[in-house]
Design goal:
Blueprint: H1 6-18, E1 23-29, E2 32-38, H2 41-53, E3 77-87, E4 90-102, E5 106-111
Antiparallel strand pairs: 1-2, 1-5, 2-3, 3-4
Length: 119
C-alpha cells in the first residue's frame, strides 16, 4: 500500500493504548499471509529481548530491543506474537513467532486469526 489503511492504523493504535495482546489479526504483506495476535510494541520488544537474552549466541542483541520508543504519532508497524506465516495448510513456525510488519506493506487484512492443520 502506498498509503497505510487508516482503519488498520486505528486498530493498531487501540492495541497500543490498551496494552492488550489478545487482538487476533490476519494480514497479507509481500504476498505472505501472517496470522496471529497483535501486541503493543513495548510488550513485543520486551518479549523479543527476553528470548534473545536467553540465547548464548544472540544475547548481545537483546539490548537493542529494550530501547525506549517515542510513541509519538500513529503506529507505523504491527507487532505480532504467537504468529504464523501460512503456507498451504501449515503454519510456520509451529509454535508461533514474533513478527513486525510495516502497516504500509499490508495489502489486505481481516480481523481474526486462521486455524490450520498440518495433517
Amino acid at each position: 500500500m502506498s498509503k497505510p489503511d487508516a482503519l488498520l492504523v486505528d486498530v493498531a493504535a487501540l492495541v497500543e493504548s490498551g496494552h492488550s495482546n489478545q487482538m487476533p489479526l490476519t494480514v497479507v504483506a509481500g504476498g505472505a499471509v501472517i496470522t496471529g495476535r497483535l501486541a503493543p510494541e513495548a510488550v513485543w520488544r520486551q518479549r523479543v529481548s527476553e528470548v534473545l537474552a536467553d540465547s548464548a549466541h544472540l544475547s548481545d542483541f537483546s539490548t537493542v530491543f529494550t530501547a525506549t520508543t517515542t510513541g509519538e504519532g500513529p503506529p507505523t508497524h504491527l507487532h505480532f506474537h504467537v504468529a504464523r506465516i501460512l503456507q498451504g495448510t501449515v503454519g510456520i513456525p509451529e509454535t508461533g513467532g514474533m513478527y513486525r510488519v510495516a502497516i504500509q506493506d499490508v495489502s489486505a487484512w481481516t480481523m481474526g486469526d486462521f486455524s490450520y492443520s498440518d495433517h
